[in-house]
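$ fold --in a.seq
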Amino acid sequence: MARFVRPAGFVWVPLLFLLVAGACRPAQAPTPTPTPPPTPTAPAQPAPTPIAPTPTPVLTLPGLGAPTPTPAPQATPVGADIVPYAQVYSANPPKRFTEAEVRRGGTFVTDFSGDPPHFDPDLTTSYFMLGAVGPVYSRLLRPVWGAMANPYAPEIVPDLAERWEASSDGLTYTFSLRKDVTWQETPYYDFPEVEGKPFTCDDARFSLERDAKNATAFLVASVETITCLDAYTLRVTLKRRDPGFLPNLASSYAYIIPKALVEKVGDLRQVALGTGPFLLKEYKPKTSITYERNPKYFVTGVPYLDTYRIVIIPEESTQVAAFRAGQIHYTGTNLPSVVRDILRTHPKTVVHRFHIPAASFHIAFRLDKAPWNNADVRRAISMAINREEMNRLVYGGEGQTYNIGVPWPSAFDTLPPPEAFGPYYKYNPQGAKDLLAKAGFGAGLTADYVYYAYGDDRIQQSEMIQQYLAQIGVKISVQRLDYGVWTQQYLGQQWKDLALGFTVPAGGMALGYDWTYELMKCKASKNTWFICDPELDALLEKTVTETDPLKLKQVYRQIWEREVNQVYRAYIAQEVRYSLWHPWVRNTQGWTGYRFDQFTYGGSHVATVWLDDPAKYR
């Protein structure tokens, strides 16, 4: 009988608890007292780059428009030796390199602000879980890795599937699987039924079927049948055309797991054993997660690193201190002031700046309950928020004042101006009071508000929201939750009234479909907010059936306008995300908005990260 050996340091506390697919057809601090600032002018952004048909094995997804440029903290000449897409770097864009320059070995360290709730990739969409298991698993498809990857239009390439074909109607996909892949052999477990055994179609089919029954059901919501034609050929038929199907399979949610292991242990909460580039060596809750290279990884020549480590550091100030001290190699922040401070003392730090085309954080309402099912109450809450002031006080005016969770490039040619967001996104406390009175709450109301501090900005924003709502007679009790309780309440749809919610696209994020269909359709698998609007549902169905690009853009424009008018979610001022790493960290990539492989949303791209000699950069 197999002996289950936990990686050293495992201590478990039970907890309950994120493109057009025509893309791969064969031919194709204390909060300051509010004072209204002047209204900023939203900078124009380039229109998205249209998708060009590309044959298997590379799928190029639609572009999302370039980030809004800001003056670089440090001027850096851009030449042929600099990586492409240098415009996403506001300081020290990295240089290209050759394979001969790669320095193998070493330990790469990054930080998480919390622990994974567990290690089962199907039972939650927690981003700490995704980041923890990403180095261990593979997918059928994956995005291009490394510093040369396009941050605006990700390319999908083979992973466990070495090629794929689609029928002319887009309803049947056939995947030819690699025949040289085995499940990891590790000294940290004892599962002879799995370790070293071949990966086959049965594992792929089992993984997709298991997705359908769990938190990752959105990955296969359009799937009709999953069939193994033989040990290395998988066929999937769809019930309907699905623009997100292939991007979903390449996303950081779509890990392929060993069938025999699940049948042996029941679930994967306490074990991570895959076909990926790294072996899980040790997990010390509230401290660190450590991985070592998989010597039998099926991609030749990688990983370059010997060891990958994630350290758990809840407070952003401590993360920054660890980065300054060289204890971690890579970190991130939403605060421009933090970036400037780091560059003062570490001027060679690489700074990656990305401005996503859709907003994420917002005031989330329980739309299935009164009074939040009343649009006028939601509109009043939205009108109470001074987004211009929030951007100025929290982000130094460098964030996004106005945006919502429907990507603007899907609906517009340029970034919509402030007036396009209409009256309910304009700061108007008296108008908010009038709407509350109209809804029967002229005397005000009370509510609970919960949030998780993903960064210092979320703390400050929650304090400001409390102040703004108090000014219109809405008294909220603010509670900061730890990550485990937060995921249980928010992702589990168990919060009472209000939350500082986030919008994360289903699967990939390269078109409006990923941000809308599985998130906003009535009873959809990732509809956290209980949105259920027949008029909206009719529009969402058109995003699946409409193939004319101009008509599709009009559909998304209507969805965008419906979101703004109904205020299903009251979006607040948004950050521009900064990723920072020491210059001797080579071939990594910055955060590009819940995209395929981030250190938190995935992390398998660490396979091609390497560490140069730090002495060369002093």
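$ fold --in b.seq
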Amino acid sequence: MNNPNTLIHPILLQWLDLTRQLSLPDLEAFAQHNIPANLPLPATYLNSLNNDYKTIALRVCILVFIASNKRIVPRKYQLEASNAMVHGLDCTVDSGTGSGKTLCQIILDLLYPNTTSITISPLKRLQLLQVAEFERWGIRTVCINEDTPSDRELWDRIRDGYYQHLIVQPEQLRMYQGHLPRLARLLHKQCFLKTIARVHMDEAHFHHLAGLPQHGLPPFRPAWGMLNEFRLCLPKGIPFQALSGTLPPHIKTAIQNHLNFDPNRAVSLKLSSNRPNIVYATHRIVGSLKDFRNADFLVSIPYKPVIKSLVFHDNTDQCAGLTDYLDGRLPQELRNTGIVRHYHSGMSKEYLTQVFEDFCNPNGMCKILNATEGASTGLDVPDVEAVIDYGLPQKKSTSQQRAGRGGRRGQLALYLVMAESWPFTASLDSVVPDGTDTDRPISGRLTKTTPKPARAGLAMILYVRSAVCLRSIISQYLTDQSAEALSI
């Protein structure tokens, strides 16, 4: 079999279509004679399945093998997730960053190209990355958010099921800012509803972190907390799949309850979230965060080439301030050349796009990116070697998402939390005993004026105070009891 080099080649499409029609014996023969030994299939799992499930799993393996130009076969958990959705079962996928959760969504489009999938996604930048990734697999995809144009031809195609995958922000599914978005209106049309076959909830932890009240504070993106209403709009039996690399028990339970997952008709898949190539470390800030000398190690004097680093900040002033400071430590001829940049929502769309693309480019100028919260989700830059929290994050779930931005291609990478002095001395006397939400603030209830030290979550305080292995602290937070949880 001679595969073409492009995913849109008609011969490739013919091979995919043929694979969708093969019987189980033909699928087994194809796999035996075409899939090489260096891409081993999960044989033990496949042999444990009945013929129905095995047919789906083998078909998926071959479709992915063909569509990836013989580079990839699915992992066991990806096959389990696919079989769950095919058989109408809701599914939770709890696996670390970079483990292949996106392929769980791609597989169903390869398997059933004449149906429509919806992925609920939190950020516009992430939506664009997802569209690009799906289109690389030959899947017709469009993102839908408040910037989507009111182009009649586009919306006719969406309505008629031309697009195999819709990447949607949750605000587009219901009343938003006093009007009903166009996609929400389509949910009342049977011609559109009948095209929808499944729903994926990407970065599912956003339901809990953004969509629910947080210890006295209202949700800052209420639409994430109303996805159960969206589910009620859909025909009965459409399966939902919730995916995240940060699902401690209290967040996972909240998602499953919200989406009405029936324990008897749902599959929960959990892989180790441990990344053996990540080195975890903490450091106590000297003085205050305003003393940027604490970050001198990022740009040495005398100058040595800097490693690609992503630095997170609580606010835009600190983000811009450290950028100026580090740029000033560069040799004169390298200053203002874009080696150190900042990235936050206060910048223009054009600037953010330019900086993002430059930082993503292995040959780009930007080597140190100072960013606020938005860059912690979906920033897939393979060559980041250091991720730094300049100041204690409020929640361990946020910390885990940020740590996952480093070492994406398997190289050794550092995740460093640079904490102020107060976490080491803060009183924990007011912490309400509660074994469920380990991210609860040490002050109990929050208001808009609650200062940062009182907002800090118990899990983060205990993390930076820990005198034991940080990898062990993380495995306890995520209830990761796998054999790989502490591997390095």
